[in-house]
Inverse folding.
């Protein structure tokens, strides 16, 4: 809540003007029953047509003034609500961007998306209603009661009895519903995650005929959300009938008491109408206040969920040291007894890995599924942090380097190529905004992607749809490799980024990259032996441990794991 208020302070003027104008509108509204009473008592009772017309004109003027003030108040309230939420959403997005892969894996993308969208909408609506009604409604309620005392103290006691009962109902239900609304948002997280998984993996679902099972899983999550919403909805639904019951009971008592006072000559007919109008005003405002309480309860629950994310400190911090890539005789990458355990994992994913890579050297990384290949190369750009040992890039501990320097020096192309909506040019220039067309085409040529890019209308300016769905899997991978090459890094990591390519294209890609690498250190991760055979050295991993390190020829003689991988992919006769 404190964090939300800190962003609301940026719109202090709007946050003060909105309720102030609503108070002024409420002040005019409180005079309407008095003018109505005068019309009945003096205009109609006295038979004065001019008195009636002038006071009707006064009612119209009060209505027009109230309308103009209400519109202005709504403008300022909306400006404060939208502006505050916009800044809070931006802060949340920036904070999520500071998370390492570990925090994102732990939280899950489903809940992060829900908090960025649904929860933020609830917060925005809550702020808007709060600024408009949090002073107006109580002012009308207590103002109407005070005005009732000026008309008839005896009748006004009914107001004094009804208001505490109504307050007890409203705030009691608020206390009950707030934790339930928080639970509803949690259920929505689970549903969002389920839908996202199904849409992302729709091909896998259909390939394995899991439509029925996934439908049942979705229905189960949907039922849990439905039950949570019905439970809180039932409690919230009690608000209106209970408040109406109390107010209507008070109205019955008021009319009965007023009739006796009129008969005794202690109360005028117009005054009774004014009292009834004041009671109706209280009813309307309390209903508004009840809805406000419900919305604010939901907004507070959502604000707490947003604050939970903002309160998480990123586990990965960066230093202020620049990478000195030009230092001579310094290893580009050094792994010194490095071990890695994922958060919440039962065991190590990497254990006691040590190797060096010199500038311009090509390092192959091979191993079976789950051997730790991707984990190893993901430690270089600090997607994750090692749990033991030391990693140095060009002589500096990777934890001491600033983020900009690290991102500039290291580029990676992942197996699951991710393209962003825009154009081919905008995707390629992500790593190097200063790259000109010549540099981009050079990267496309090396990535074996220039042919199909030239074949598209617009060339570099051809559109890319969300996720790159207007490209095939192989085309997406080649564009991802080109994006990494366009960044002109000193360390390039190809994390099984040619898995969707045929052998000929894969070979041409590796040959072109080696030809343009210069002093760039290249890491090639693959399960294909032919993709790493030409590397200067090959790291062989098995169950997170280094099973071998050397050239292809050395490993064929000395490393059984590598020999088994090679012979499983080639005929044994060719291995002799």
């Amino acid at each position: 809540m404190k964090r939300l208020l800190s962003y609301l302070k940026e719109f202090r003027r709007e946050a003060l003007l909105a309720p102030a104008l609503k108070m002024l509108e409420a002040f005019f509204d409180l005079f309407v029953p008095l003018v109505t009473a005068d019309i009945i008592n003096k205009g109609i009772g006295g038979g004065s047509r001019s008195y009636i017309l002038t006071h009707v004109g006064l009612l119209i003027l009060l209505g027009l003034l109230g309308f103009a003030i209400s519109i202005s108040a709504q403008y300022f309230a909306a400006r404060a609500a939208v502006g505050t939420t916009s800044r809070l959403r931006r802060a949340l997005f920036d904070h999520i961007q500071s998370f390492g892969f570990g925090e994102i894996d732990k939280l899950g993308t489903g809940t992060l998306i829900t908090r960025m969208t649904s929860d933020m909408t609830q917060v925005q609506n809550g702020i808007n209603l709060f600024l408009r009604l949090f002073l107006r409604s109580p002012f009308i309620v207590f103002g109407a009661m005070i005005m009732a005392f000026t008309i008839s103290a005896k009748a006004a006691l009914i107001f004094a009895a009804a208001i505490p009962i109504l307050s007890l109902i409203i705030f009691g239900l608020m206390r009950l519903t707030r934790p339930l609304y928080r639970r509803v948002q949690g259920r929505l997280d689970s549903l969002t995650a389920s839908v996202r998984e199904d849409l992302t993996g729709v091909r896998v679902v259909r390939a394995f005929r899991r439509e029925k099972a996934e439908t049942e899983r979705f229905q189960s999550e949907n039922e849990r959300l439905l039950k949570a919403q019905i439970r809180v909805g039932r409690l919230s639904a009690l608000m209106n009938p209970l408040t109406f019951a109390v107010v209507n009971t008070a109205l019955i008592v008021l009319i009965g008491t007023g009739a006796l006072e009129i008969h005794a000559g202690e109360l005028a007919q117009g005054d009774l109408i004014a009292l009834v109008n004041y009671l109706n005003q209280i009813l309307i405002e309390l209903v508004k206040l009840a809805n406000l309480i419900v919305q604010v309860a939901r907004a507070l629950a959502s604000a707490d969920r947003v604050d939970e994310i903002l309160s998480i400190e990123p586990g990965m911090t960066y230093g202020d040291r620049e990478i000195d890539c030009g230092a001579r005789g310094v290893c580009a990458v050094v792994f010194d007894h490095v071990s890695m355990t994922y958060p919440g994992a039962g065991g190590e994913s990497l254990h006691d890995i040590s190797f060096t890579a010199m500038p311009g050297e090509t390092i192959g990384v091979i191993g079976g599924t789950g051997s730790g290949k991707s984990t190893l190369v993901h430690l270089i750009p600090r997607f994750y942090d090692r749990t033991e040992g030391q990693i140095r890039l060009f002589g500096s501990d990777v934890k001491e380097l600033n983020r900009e320097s690290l991102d500039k020096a290291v580029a990676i192309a992942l197996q699951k190529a991710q393209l962003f909506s825009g154009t081919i040019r905008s995707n390629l220039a992500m790593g190097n905004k200063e790259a000109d067309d010549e540099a981009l085409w050079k990267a496309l040529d090396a990535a074996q992607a220039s042919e199909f890019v030239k074949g598209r209308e617009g060339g570099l300016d051809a559109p890319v749809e969300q996720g790159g769905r207007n490209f095939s899997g192989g085309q997406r991978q080649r564009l991802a490799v080109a994006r990494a090459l366009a960044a002109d890094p000193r360390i390039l990591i190809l994390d099984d980024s040619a898995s969707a390519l045929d052998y000929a294209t894969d070979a041409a890609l590796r040959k072109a990259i080696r030809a343009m690498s210069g002093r760039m250190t290249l890491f090639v991760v693959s399960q294909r032996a032919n993709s790493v055979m030409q590397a200067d050295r090959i790291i062989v991993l098995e169950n997170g441990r280094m099973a071998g390190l050397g050239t292809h020829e050395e490993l064929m003689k000395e490393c059984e794991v590598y020999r088994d991988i090679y012979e499983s992919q080639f005929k044994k006769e060719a291995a002799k």
In short: Confidence is low (pLDDT under 50) at residues 572-576.
